[in-house]
Amino acid sequence: TIDATIPLKSRELWEKNGIQKFDEESGFEKKFVGHVETSLARSMYNCDELAAYEATSLSVRDNLLIDWNATQQKITTTEPKRVYYLSLEFLMGRALDNALINMSSNDKLANTGDNTSRGFVKKGLDDLGFNLENVLKKEPDAGLGNGGLGRLAACFVDSMATKNIPAWGYGLRYEYGIFAQKIINGYQVETPDYWLNSGNPWEIERTEIQVPITFYGYVDRVNGDTSTLSPSQWVGGERVLAVAYDFPVPGFKTSTVNNLRLWRAKPTTEFDFAKFNSGDYKNSVDQQQRAESITAVLYPNDNFTEGKELRLKQQYFWCAASLHDIVRRFKKSKRPWRELPDKIAIQLNDTHPTLAIVELQRILVDLEKLDWHEAWDIVTHTFAYTNHTVMQEALEKWPIDLFGNLLPRHLEIIYDINWFFLKEVHKKFPKDTDILRNVSIIEEATPERQVRMAFLAVIGSHHVNGVAELHSQLIRTTIFKDFAKVFGNKKFTNVTNGITPRRWLKQANPELAELIGDAIGDPSQNFLLDMSKLTALAKKADDPEFQAKWDSVKEHNKIRLANYIKELNGGVDVINKEHIRHTLFDIQVKRMHEYKRQQMNIFGVIHRYFSMKDMLKDGKSIEEVAAKYPRKVSIFGGKSAAGYYMAKLVIRLINSVAEVINNDKEIQDLLKVFFIPDYNVSKAEIIVPASDLSEHISTAGTEGSGTSNMKFVMNGGLIIGTVDGANVEITREIGEDNIFLFGHLSESVDDLRFKHQYNETPLPPSIDRVLNELDSFTEFKGEFKPLIDSIRHHGDYYIVSDDFDSYLATHHLVDETYHHSKHEWIKKSILSVANIGFFSSDRCIDEYASTIWNVEPMTP
Amino acid sequence: TIDATIPLKSRELWEKNGIQKFDEESGFEKKFVGHVETSLARSMYNCDELAAYEATSLSVRDNLLIDWNATQQKITTTEPKRVYYLSLEFLMGRALDNALINMSSNDKLANTGDNTSRGFVKKGLDDLGFNLENVLKKEPDAGLGNGGLGRLAACFVDSMATKNIPAWGYGLRYEYGIFAQKIINGYQVETPDYWLNSGNPWEIERTEIQVPITFYGYVDRVNGDTSTLSPSQWVGGERVLAVAYDFPVPGFKTSTVNNLRLWRAKPTTEFDFAKFNSGDYKNSVDQQQRAESITAVLYPNDNFTEGKELRLKQQYFWCAASLHDIVRRFKKSKRPWRELPDKIAIQLNDTHPTLAIVELQRILVDLEKLDWHEAWDIVTHTFAYTNHTVMQEALEKWPIDLFGNLLPRHLEIIYDINWFFLKEVHKKFPKDTDILRNVSIIEEATPERQVRMAFLAVIGSHHVNGVAELHSQLIRTTIFKDFAKVFGNKKFTNVTNGITPRRWLKQANPELAELIGDAIGDPSQNFLLDMSKLTALAKKADDPEFQAKWDSVKEHNKIRLANYIKELNGGVDVINKEHIRHTLFDIQVKRMHEYKRQQMNIFGVIHRYFSMKDMLKDGKSIEEVAAKYPRKVSIFGGKSAAGYYMAKLVIRLINSVAEVINNDKEIQDLLKVFFIPDYNVSKAEIIVPASDLSEHISTAGTEGSGTSNMKFVMNGGLIIGTVDGANVEITREIGEDNIFLFGHLSESVDDLRFKHQYNETPLPPSIDRVLNELDSFTEFKGEFKPLIDSIRHHGDYYIVSDDFDSYLATHHLVDETYHHSKHEWIKKSILSVANIGFFSSDRCIDEYASTIWNVEPMTP
């Protein structure tokens, strides 16, 4: 065994001196003071809240690392099949509070209800002179993602740890995460998010794990061998090091601690004579320094692909480092290569990691000298691919020249993959003249030939899944239609997205979690591991006493948000807190995108405002107005890609409208609008629990799944939404009475678009008026013309005009229910939560594990 | 008191949980395992030697930090006068072994002789399965300096801690230290020294200390005030952050742990609207990233100034951050400004930190609104300046345009300083028409006007010192002649350099330290704190038994070096170890520079080789040759600035000569030549103790002090040297019988140079022949022509030809003594060590403290 390599005497000494976990106040205090005095080299006299955050994190991290070591040691010795989750984004948010919730659940304090480690850490900090809430706020968000895709990866690693799946995440450690959004004069301004400014106590820099990564150069084959199928040598022209940074990922109520490994680019220290031959020392230092730029910054685009070489460099850097790591680990087991797919499942989160397929083929053929076809068989049994979108602008394509210059050997391999694949297709459909062109990895139709990454991902994977049923069905029938013909429908499957109830219920909304636990007789909140237990809530849906408690929790969370908005608003209240219980919080927070239709939301707000003003003009009293348009706050939040003009214009419009409406004394606080700047994970944790209603109103057929819809419902908010993404299954689960659906179905969208383009029809008067009067919200006449034109003259691609009246009518229904049938409303809320269990990301992991990865949990 | 700010209950808890120092094996083992398992997140199964080095360092660091905290706390509460030592270079070498020697000397194990913490740490590592020597080798050198100047600063911080002076060093944390030197085909090739590749357990990143630093921009004054003497606002155009990195500096046999604070440039996170107004997000991230380049790389020039803007940026960045820190600390004491010089002494190591003078004036006038003259009075009572060289090419000058663009307000202040100074000078010497031009800070004679930094340093300081007596005298009579007239001679003083005997005797040569301790009845080696105790050795100088032991230590160290050279030589012995006791190790290791005259050394070697060959050609036997030219190894080492063509050519010549001589079977190992690549501090620790003879042969009047001369003598090596730098005082201390001096005196040099230029005289035949036959060592005819021409045709600026015969004759004397009067030789060696005490850097610190800084030690 592995123990045998260490002399008995030493082993005993190591074991005797091994560190112990703390599980109560005094143990925590000892650790805390120790870290202040050593790791931080401070003392009680200069330990501020930031230092307290760091010392607390380091203390908690020490506990996690004991379990981390045990988990990894167990995986090494028992060799279960392992999952590697490759995602270019992990939108983790803050780590400390989550760790406190997940920590030390297998020791004597486990299963004693809430507030296990959170409780004693709070007490310990208190004794030492600190307040836990303030300490938690000192942690900057790890904003290493844009939106849903990155947050999904974060929920998945949480669930994989909780489910005891032996799994590692692989990503990049960007020095600059998603930009910080500032709102200046109503406009979005992007500022760099240098999140590591104060260091990061949650990362372990693994300086000992440094993988050399190659770019550019040329391909060489021995003895004049010209076949690209034979082992080839890639002589690189540029070399950088990938250094590993590990983030422990603790499971909930288990001692499993998985690993998230993020790579950072660093200069290589090896001696490259060719490079230094020039003798230009200063220049060679500069060159080395530039290596770090590879992982400097996250590309801030969501559902849009930017064809910059640096982006491709990021992707290859990350794939090559991860594969090197994965293969090295596999080789230590000394198993034959053909067993690799029995021991390793690699999941590709979107097409960003598609190069991993090619890289594994290269490793097997060029370095390990396997036969091409044997290698390809191993590769295709190892990878599975998750598609996130069917929108054309989001599908990755790389110009052949750029690709071949950066990765000459990979391009050869792709040509060969394509060649063998097309041969097979031709054999299957010898008479189909179009299909070869349609499924070729190389797009020939464009002026510049391009590598279609999604096609490569499909061909190199054994399973392809969408992220919601509607979306998975669209994949099969649109972008991968011909592949479904080639591979059959079985390769194309669905795993509807989910979210972790630990962060999105317990951490964001501890009051609700406690109320639920009490209500269903589960005070230690085991429902967070088995969300089907929530169905027991249904019994209480009609209970007035329970309803009152339920509503009080909501009120509490609304006040928290109202206070936060006040803080953002320079200390001045936006929301009238006197009426907060009867003020509908209507929230849309997510990336700014035309397809997500924040423009429709703000048009709706404008329409409401005009209608209220009309009534007043018609001599109606404010009470009469309030009866028809009861109290409401429209809250927005979300970032736009820096170069996305239309999305940024919508932000400006929202802020312009807010400026007018919030300052209109005439309507007496009946309507307020607020745009929360710099929406991120930690802000979501405050925003989500406060919603009465949230908006998920994408043009049907455009949203992959959406996950904020699940978060809002899990926190007792109702939804207004289109029949799109996971809204469909949310409706199925919670019942159509409990959701406000509206708008055209995806089947109609193409026809509507066609109609807009070829038969210009007049707009409905509702939206027509809104568009006509947009200028009244700005001092710059015509500022919003592009928004108007897109609907009036450019085909209204997102069918805002078609859905607008249905949207307004549904809002009217919402008002009616919220204000005149509050009992019904709360009942809907409770029933929704009771039936939201399906959307726990634990369920997703179960599905991936059994139908795609074929892995088993490992007893910790 | 400060305690009162913390509630009693919390304070008790902090104190109860405070960490404790370990002082024996089991305590160390506990710490070590804890750090492996938490700080490194490893386990016994994957703890390699690098990890063991890191865990040992972190454990030892924890101990030091307890004392560090206590020392700093004591300074804060007792408010003694403090010293700040500003040096752009700190050539620290390795930290762990030094810390082991200095650690825990005030606990129960102190004063129990050698091997206190080093002993139990060695034992503890052994038990855990590691070997201390191998672990120590894992530490990369902190190569944050070029040569003597940087190493001096390192010795000084060691001595200041040992002497209990409340002192901090301030410098820069270069990501790339002095380049690593590779020798390829005999040529020096510079490769980047990315010394932080594996992290650095000795640094504490103080993310909480971030000082904003401004560059460029313009100057503004309120209300149209046009006087540059009134408070002005500097509106900067670029801003970066200086982040502090602290390195604990432990004293020897004291619990004082001082601080070395190095600054790193990082991007600012503040929002600069002007900068982001453009909306170009990617570009603004790039700009921010570039901030880090300020501290990326050490300029690899020694005694030569490079006028790059980035260098001036480094200097200002460092001075501004340090002054900000110093002033902030002073302001906390709430004392009036006029007391600043009573509480703070700032020492400027060379002119690199001269901007600190201007920056303090700026802070006092612009930010603190002091009257100009009151401020200047404070400034000039605070600073003192150490000059290191009188060589023109090393004197810093900055073109006005470049300077004024980067630091517009500082240029104004310099003009004003100059104006008031010149007024004063004019008053004193109303009839001297030249003096104003000669002492003006602004040089007007050059095509481009320039700021003369040395003049500014002289004017802004209360004391100016040279680094050896001869040098201090030269300062007064050459470059600062007119200033001596203005200020009087008393302002110009001398502090002869020194070295720390802890690193350069105890750490590098533990066997010798032990032998000395035993010989003088001081087994706990207190002589390391009071080197005058060494004089007791003189009694034993003639004792044959002691001489034998003395010689055995030398032999041991020579074998260690011979083995190391073998390792560097690909495992093949260069030195015949059979005869090692009778082989003279002749060593010259230092920066490669024409003025240091390595060329003369290798010419001497060539001359010896030719003479040996001549004898053989004349039919003499090898025994006869050996009698005249006994066994000798000529060892060289040192880096050349990357752009210094002549110095690099000398390296190539040495290697070319080595290639020929070492492979000449005819001379049967009687002469060997070896160039040790990449000379640095840790290599010096192996090289220095192994010398029989070392060479310090600079052209008289060029070397400031030299410190390697002291190191070699302290380790029992004799010196061949010119009457230059500290050689003069070494001779005074150890007696002229114990040193081999030769060559012209500095008084003659100007005449000799004049003669070379205007009356071309034939070269002495000895050097003439060597120059004629240089081609025999290379396949490229004429390769060494520039070396030849510099002597034959370009005035032999370094008077090699004038000193050569005297040099050869002295080497003959060396041979005679070493080989035929070994008893005499060893006696000289012992007497030298007995009288080397003066050159402890502790003595330097005493002198600085009493005559320049006016500070007292603080009882720890």
Walk me through what this model shows.
The structure is a homodimer of 860-residue chains. With 860 residues, the first copy, chain A, is α/β, with parallel strands linked by helices. Chain A folds into three domains: 19-78 and 96-138, no CATH class; 79-95 and 139-494, Rossmann fold; 582-827, Glycogen Phosphorylase B (Rossmann fold, 3-Layer(aba) Sandwich), CATH 3.40.50.2000. Helix content of chain A is 46%, strand content 14%. Chain A is built from 34 helices and 24 strands. Chain A has a nine-stranded mixed sheet. In chain A, strands 21-20-19-22-23-24 form a six-stranded parallel sheet, sandwiched between helices. In chain A, a hairpin with a 2-residue loop joins strand 5 (180-184) and strand 6 (187-191). In chain A, helix 4 (96-102) packs across helix 20 (501-507) and helix 23 runs parallel beside helix 25 (645-662). Chain A is globular and about 95 Å long. The model of chain A is unreliable at 105-112 (pLDDT under 50). At the A-B interface, helix 1, helix 2, helix 3, strand 6 and strand 7 of A face helix 1, helix 2, helix 3, strand 6 and strand 7 of B.
What is the fold's blueprint, element by element?
The structure is a homodimer of 860-residue chains.
Chain A: H1 8-17, H2 25-37, H3 49-78, E1 82-86, E2 90-93, H4 96-102, H5 117-128, H6 132-137, E3 142-144, H7 148-162, E4 167-172, E5 180-184, E6 187-191, E7 204-215, E8 218-220, E9 233-235, E10 238-250, E11 257-267, H8 273-276, H9 281-290, H10 309-332, H11 340-343, E12 344-349, H12 355-367, H13 372-380, E13 383-386, E14 397-399, H14 400-406, H15 408-428, H16 435-439, E15 442-443, E16 450-452, H17 453-460, E17 463-466, H18 469-477, H19 481-487, E18 492-494, H20 501-507, H21 510-519, H22 544-568, E19 584-589, H23 598-617, H24 622-628, E20 632-637, H25 645-662, E21 671-676, H26 681-687, E22 693-696, H27 708-714, E23 718-721, H28 727-734, E24 740-741, H29 746-758, H30 765-772, H31 785-792, H32 800-820, H33 822-834, H34 841-853
Parallel strand pairs in A: 1-4, 1-12, 4-11, 12-13, 13-17, 17-18, 19-20, 19-22, 20-21, 22-23, 23-24
Antiparallel strand pairs in A: 2-3, 5-6, 7-10, 8-9, 10-11, 14-16, 15-16
Helix pairs in contact in A: 2-3, 2-5, 4-20, 7-34, 10-12, 12-13, 12-15, 14-15, 21-22, 22-33, 23-25, 23-30
